[in-house]
Structures are given as C-alpha cells and as structure tokens.
Amino acid sequence: MWGLITLGIALVAGCLVPNRCLPRLPDDKLMHAGAFGVLAWLALGLATGPVSAAAWMAGLAVAGWLIECLQALVPDRGFSWGDIGANLAGIGVAILVRALSHHFMP
Q: Which UniProt key words apply to this protein (predicted)?
C-alpha cells in the first residue's frame, strides 16, 4: 500500500511542475504508460476481487484525467489526450499481464 501511495504522490508532484524546472526526460508517453502501469499493478495487488479491481482501475483512470486537467493550469504544461491514452494503455497492459500471470502461474 505504501508503494502505491508513494508512487502516486511522486507522479502527481512531477506532473504539476513546470517543464522548464524539469531535466530533459525520456519519451513522455512511455513515462505515462510506465507510471500508470506500475500504479495499476500495485493497485491490482490490493484488490480483493473483480469489483474492487475495477474500482481501482477506474480510480486510476480518473486520477490521470484530473492530473491532465490540473496541468492545464501549470506554466509550460497543458492538457493532453495523448497522455490520457498512454495512461490507459499502461493500465491495460498491467491488467493483461496480471491476468496472464494468474492464468499461467496459478
């Protein structure tokens, strides 16, 4: 649980810093997908069943959207549907990998 909270806080903090204050970073979309994939993986580990898992994933998707909305208020940042798509891709990959891992390694 602490890993999820820590990564979530770091993600939000990093997303709300003006670009000019950040070092040169690798591909933005890969970073979004990776961060949300890890968050989803951790959240799925906390889920107590399918309804709980769906609620966690929906919460992550909404959090990603909210972060993008807040970025529109930060200098040098802006709202990006591409970032939201990358967030959802990361969540989807985590769901798929978790499902396959449970299927092949029960």
A: Membrane, Transmembrane, Transmembrane helix
Q: Cα dihedral angle (90, 96, 102, 104), rounded to 10 degrees?
A: -120
Burial 43-77 (b: 16+ CB within 10 A, else e): bbeeeeeeeebeebbeebbebbbebbeebeeeeeb
Q: How far apart are CA 102 and CA 100, in angstroms?
A: 5
Look up residue 37 and give its amino acid.
G
Contact 44, 95 (CB under 8 A): yes
Domain edges within the chain: 2-104
Tens digits of per-residue pLDDT, 45-76? 999 999 999 999 999 999 999 999 988 888 88
N-terminal to C-terminal alpha carbon distance within the chain: 23
What's at 9, amino acid-wise?
I
